[in-house]
Design a protein that fits this description.
The complex is a heterodimer of chains A (about 290) and B (about 280). Chain A is mainly alpha-helical. Chain A contains 13 helices and 2 strands, in the order H-H-E-E-H-H-H-H-H-H-H-H-H-H-H. In chain A, strands 1-2 form a two-stranded antiparallel ribbon. The longest helix of chain A is centred in the N-terminal third of the chain and has 42 residues, at about 20-65. Chain A is flat, with a radius of gyration of 28 Å. Chain B is mainly alpha-helical and about 280 residues long. Chain B contains 15 helices and no strands. Chain B has helices at about 1-5, 10-45, 45-50, 65-75, 75-105, 115-120, 130-140, 150, 160-170, 175-180, 185-200, 200-215, 220-225, 235-245, 250-280. In chain B, helix 5 (about 75-105) crosses helix 9 (about 160-170). The chains are: A mainly alpha (about 290), B mainly alpha (about 280). At the A-B interface, helix 2, helix 4, helix 5, helix 6 and helix 7 of A face helix 2, helix 5, helix 6, helix 7 and helix 10 of B.
């Protein structure tokens, strides 16, 4: 069957035999609609072209040039890559970023899923809990970084004060590599779990009731229902979250910039902070103070 | 099922489990809220509480002058005005053009539509840091360095917002549009009088997210704004960190002030936000 013209148009065509064939009129309208569509979306297209696609091309071009920041660069082929490949800090950043993403993303997803499962059934204060868990996600990275920097202060920070209260020793969060990395992971997981929880809660709404009923008729209980009904049904949600979280975790910049500044001794240097340092080191003004080394 | 047939013991067990669940949630909520609570408590504590070796949760005396001292030590009022102006103008521009783009991609038929959509969505994958240096060059060419526009315009067309709008508007029945068209409404009229009134949850989500991104943004404004007088609050805060390293109560007071507008926006709109995310096809 061919596409039907709207009833009004068909009737009009039939009523006026001398009018042009409907198909040509439809084509005329399609062209007009196309023109309107492009006109309406033009601001977005111009901005995308100017601030995303053009910079993307420029990135590839700049990568092959030597540049002092201003003025035209000099072609040096793959020289920048050679230089980068011989820079230990680059490799350190690459490994750090990989480990950081590999630890942070699964932890955020697992905790987010746990919170969603806890909150999926009705419980008193559900809206309050949901807000409290989501809240860290809306706070700026700079504020998070500053607060964490204060909490993980080695001498007078609250984390070490609590540890000492229980008879432990304070941990050198700011001056030894592994604790610094761990504190960063903890802070990012803290700020991302709320987002994972909300998306999982949305996903849980979509699990068909009948599946639970069918499974419990077959004798499945509590954990088995979760394991064999809920989790498989959440697979698309999990996929979406993995993609989103890998992208956002990879791009975390402000928290690192403020909390550890990549230190101590590049222990928390990531690709994005490395790129920032390489790209704007001479021009940077608000360099974060760093205690320890 | 089993709780129904086994009667009272089952119900009692279930109630016991619910109490356990509530207890666990309370503990988790305290842990999650603690950093923000600690920021608040530090902001109203005297220095001697912070510097002593003992742990003290509640301040020995309430020190509200931490706020005024830190506020007056640097041009925070200027930075606040900058932040508000940038966030508000950015929200208006960004939400408007992304809603229109979402409508075009969801409801208008034209050649190249699927290619456009693919290109727009795939830009989500590009880390912004990769593009910052060329973006800065373009902004510099346009003569926008050191202006609000340098912060607002390059981030106005946003793949996430366009995609969200399109997904939401796909669910609006075509018949509504056809009916309006038969009644003689033009495209803009349809968008304004038919589509947008149905998009309130979507608009709420877009406004919150855009406000959040602009209000919280750090790296890009840091690069394109050179004058201290044009800085936004997040950049200004790092100054406080650099210059007054030991004044943690002042630092936390200003951190709180800069987070407050976002907290208010969130608490007012959080219902729409959570509903919006689950109804905009974001799953």
């Amino acid at each position: 069957m061919t596409v039907q013209a709207p009833p009004g148009q068909a009737a009009r065509t039939a009523a006026f035999p001398g009018a042009p064939p409907a198909r040509r009129r439809r084509r005329g309208r399609a062209v007009r609609e196309g023109a309107t569509a492009y006109l309406l979306i033009a601001p977005n297209l111009v901005l995308f072209g100017l601030f995303l696609l053009l910079p993307l091309v420029m990135t590839f071009v700049l990568a092959l040039q030597e540049s002092s920041g201003i003025g035209p660069g000099r072609w040096i082929g793959l020289g920048n890559y050679r230089q980068m490949a011989s820079d230990d800090v680059f490799w350190r950043s690459l490994v750090n970023t990989a480990v950081f993403v590999a630890v942070t993303v699964p932890a955020s997803l697992a905790i987010g899923l746990g919170l969603a499962l806890l909150l999926n059934r009705p419980i008193r204060g559900r809206a309050v809990f949901r807000s409290v868990f989501y809240l860290p996600y809306v706070i700026s990275g700079v504020v998070i970084g500053l607060t964490a920097d204060w909490m993980f202060n080695e001498n007078i920070g609250v984390v070490n004060k609590i540890l000492r209260l229980f008879g432990g020793d304070g941990v050198a969060w700011q001056s030894s590599p592994l604790p610094a990395f761990a504190s960063l992971v903890a802070v990012i997981v803290w700020s991302h779990v709320g987002f994972c929880m909300v998306i999982y809660l949305a996903g849980l709404q979509g699990v068909p009731r009948e599946r639970y009923e069918a499974a419990s008729v077959d004798g499945a209980t509590g954990w088995q229902l979760t394991r064999h009904v809920t989790l498989p049904a959440l697979r698309p949600t999990t996929f979406f979250l993995v993609v989103m979280m890998v992208i956002t975790t990879f791009q975390v910049f402000d928290v690192i910039f403020v909390l550890t500044g990549g230190g101590p001794g590049n222990a928390t240097q990531m690709l994005v902070t490395y790129a920032y340092a390489a790209g704007s080191a001479p021009a940077s003004r608000a360099t974060p103070r760093r205690s320890g080394s | 099922m089993s709780t129904l047939t086994t009667g009272r013991p089952g119900i009692r067990r279930r109630r016991g489990r619910d109490a356990g669940r509530l207890g666990l949630l309370v503990v988790l909520a305290v842990v999650m809220a603690f950093p923000l609570l600690w920021m608040l408590l530090t902001a109203v504590s005297p220095d001697r509480d912070l510097n002593s070796a003992d742990l003290r949760f509640w301040p020995s005396v309430l020190r509200l002058d931490n706020f005024s001292r830190a506020w007056n030590s640097l041009p925070f009022s200027t930075w606040l005005v900058n932040s508000v102006a940038i966030a508000l103008v950015a929200v208006v521009i960004t939400v408007a053009i992304n809603l229109v783009a979402g409508f075009v991609l969801a409801k208008m038929r034209f050649t190249g539509r699927s290619v456009l959509l693919l290109v727009i969505v795939s830009t989500l994958m590009i880390p912004v840091q990769v593009l910052m240096i060329p973006q800065f060059r373009i902004v510099a060419e346009l003569g926008w360095v050191n202006t609000y526009w340098a912060v607002i315009i390059p981030r106005a067309a946003e793949a996430f917002g366009i995609f969200l709008s399109r997904q939401f508007m796909l669910a609006i029945p075509d018949e509504l549009i056809d009916a309006a068209r038969v009644d003689g409404a033009g495209t803009l009229r349809i968008l304004r009088s038919v589509i947008l009134p149905l998009c309130k949850p979507l608009i709420a989500v877009l406004v919150i997210f855009t406000f959040m991104y602009r209000w919280n943004e750090f790296a890009w404004p840091l690069i394109v704004l050179k004058d201290q007088g044009l800085y936004t609050l997040p950049i200004g805060l790092t100054f406080l960190q650099g210059q007054y390293t030991t004044d943690y109560s002042g630092l936390m007071a200003m951190a709180l002030v800069s987070a407050l507008p976002m907290l208010v926006v969130f608490l007012v709109f959080q219902r729409y936000l959570v509903e919006g995310i689950s109804t905009t096809g974001l799953k």
